[in-house]
Amino acid sequence: MYSHSEIKSNNRKGVERVSNKNASDYVNDKAEFQGNNTFSEYVNGVYIVYSYGYHFPLFVYKDGNWYANNEKYSSTISKHYSQLCPNEKIYRYCNTELMKKLPYISELQALTI
Questions:
Q1: Nearest-angstrom CA–CA distance, 78 and 105
Q2: pLDDT, tens digit, for every residue of 27-76?
Q3: Rounded Cα–Cα distance for residues 18 and 54 (Å)
Q4: Is 77 within 8 Å of 57 (Cβ atoms)?
Q5: 48 φ, ψ (degrees, to nearest 5)
Q6: Strand 57-62 relative to strand 46-51: parallel, antiparallel, unpaired?
Q7: Which H, E and C letters describe 27-73, residue by residue?
Q8: In what helix (H) or strand (E) does residue 77 lie, and over which residues does it extend?
Q9: What is the C-alpha separation between 75 and 18, in angstroms, rounded?
């Protein structure tokens, strides 16, 4: 699935380094990766894709559903969004603050926020 030319060594514990344009395979597999100003990780069993750090989660996969950040801050973040968007349907679009809370709250709580 991932060619050795796409994968480079990385400083994050065992996480594969990959170009952003090839990172969508990792997102769709819900595999951790380190891209160029993008990365993903699991928090409380929830898969999260970030752009430019923890302050901006782009996508969250929780309880079988994809959530997407509906806030656009820059053309670069919009590019990251396009490069990393999962193939599966987005269940719900959320603001940044709710995206940050998703790993810690229930679906019912998310619906009421």
A1: 27
A2: 999 999 999 999 999 999 999 999 999 999 999 999 999 999 999 878 98
A3: 19
A4: no
A5: -130, 135
A6: antiparallel
A7: HHHCCCEECCCEEEEEECCEEEEEECCCCCEEEEEECCEEEEECCCC
A8: helix 75-84
A9: 21
Task: Indicate whether 5 pLDDT > 80.
Answer: no
Number of residues that this document lists for the chain? 113
Instruction: Kindly report whether the global pTM for this prediction surpasses the value 0.70.
Output: yes
- The arithmetic mean of pLDDT across residues 5-15, rounded, is 52
57-62 and 65-69 beta bridge pairing: antiparallel
pLDDT computed for residue 44 by the predictor: 93
Whether the Cβ atoms of residue 44 and residue 54 lie closer than 8 Å to each other: no
Neighbouring CB atoms inside 10 A of 92's CB total: 15
Distance between CA 84 and CA 66 in Å, rounded?
12
Distance CA 35, CA 7 (A): 10
